[in-house]
Design goal:
The chain has about 350 residues and is α/β, with parallel strands linked by helices. The chain is built from 12 helices and 13 strands. It folds into 2 domains: about 1-110, Enolase-like, domain 1 (2-Layer Sandwich); about 115-335, Enolase-like C-terminal domain (TIM Barrel, Alpha-Beta Barrel). The protein has helices at about 55-65, 75-85, 90-110, 110-115, 135-145, 160-170, 185-195, 210-220, 240, 250-255, 260-270, 285-290; strands at about 1-20, 20-35, 40-45, 130, 150-155, 175-180, 200-205, 225-230, 245-250, 275-280, 300, 315, 335.
Length: about 350
């Protein structure tokens, strides 16, 4: 198999601000795996919060390249060789896993969700995210998403409660919130009790990622379901979260690919936890990869492409909160209309 990669620069329409930082430009990486005249595509979206960046992604891809071998169907063996060669680097491994699944689907002429035996009619609606903003900017952002059926609002700054009250005055759809580890347990309880009358469906990661007991402490004291995000990367994390949270947010960039995401989904179900599938700031390529498992989720936050100024791909995610799994082979991704010549394809 021949592996190539190149920068995939993305820009959000608004500055994307959460409690741990703010960015408008995002340095993703496009991956291609070529074999037997077929090309599979993948995307890496590294998170600085987890010690990743584009340069490290590229170095990890070069390290993993000899692990691919000559059989794209040998996913177990490829995964074992990669694990033995270099641990971590979830974004790079996710891109390779995507490209392999895309190749297999294209080779067989089937969408990946069919290879997993899933039912596309069971895909939940997805939320779209509003990052941290002052009241004036939040009003402008809210104007652009009023027709989405679900919102996720980032919290973790002064004025959170008032901001959310203003949003609820205008918006009647479902709202969930995400603190991205911003609060101490007592602060989390204080804010969540204040916003509970607004009909908040769930809160993600109210406390530090290592504070699992803090998650449980908050959960016992509020009526809003608590989901772990930064505290949950792979299936191995699930058992420690059981009994401490109501659900987990699984992201393909954290799990390192669809295979581990599927294992984490089954582990969560075995422990009675709800499952959310989430995303980083990604194009429709990575979003479409995660969407292949969307029929297994309770909640979707596959919205990274809706935040972009320009999405270079057209894939499973569609407009207004709908994730529509297509019959196109592989991940179902093609270049977006108007993509520049020589661009990602």
């Amino acid at each position: 198999m021949r592996l190539t990669h190149e920068p995939l620069p993305l820009e959000t329409a608004f500055t994307f601000r959460i409690s741990v930082g703010a960015r408008k430009a995002h340095a993703n990486t496009l991956v291609r795996i070529e074999h037997d005249g077929i090309t599979g595509l993948g995307e890496a979206s590294p998170a600085s919060y987890y010690g990743e960046n584009a340069r490290l992604v590229e170095a990890a891809l070069e390290t993993y390249a000899p692990c691919l071998g000559e059989d794209p169907f040998a996913l177990d063996a490829i995964e074992a060789r990669m694990r033995a060669t270099l641990r971590g680097h979830g974004a790079a491994r996710a891109a390779l896993d995507m490209a392999l699944h895309d190749w297999i689907g294209r080779r067989l002429g089937l969408p990946v969700w069919r290879l997993f035996g899933l039912d596309p009619s069971r895909v939940p609606l997805s939320c779209v995210t509003l990052g941290l903003a002052d009241p004036e900017e939040m009003e402008r952002k809210l104007d652009t998403v009023m027709d989405f059926p679900r919102l996720k609002v980032k919290l973790g700054a002064p004025g959170d409660v008032d901001n959310l009250r203003r949003i609820r005055e205008r918006y009647r759809g479902a709202i969930q919130v995400d603190a991205n580890t911003a609060w101490s347990p007592p602060d989390a309880v204080r804010v969540l009790r204040a916003i509970e009358p607004l009909g908040i469906e769930l809160v993600e990661q109210p406390v530090a990622r290592e504070d699992l007991d803090g998650l449980a402490w908050v959960r016992r004291r509020v009526g809003i379901p608590v989901f772990a995000d930064e505290s949950c990367h792979t299936a191995a994390d699930i058992a420690n979260l059981a009994g401490r949270v109501d659900g987990v947010n699984l992201k393909i960039m954290k799990t390192g690919g669809l295979r581990e995401m599927l294992r984490a989904i089954h582990a969560a179900r075995a422990h009675g936890l709800k499952v959310m599938l989430g995303s980083m700031v990604e194009s429709s390529l990575a979003l479409s990869a995660a969407a292949q498992l969307a029929p297994l989720a309770d909640v979707l936050d596959l919205d990274g492409h809706w935040l972009l100024r320009h999405d270079p791909f057209d894939g499973a995610p569609r407009e207004r909160g709908v994730i529509a799994l297509s019959e196109r082979p592989g991940l179902g991704v093609v270049p977006a209309a108007g993509a520049p010549p020589g661009g990602p394809a």
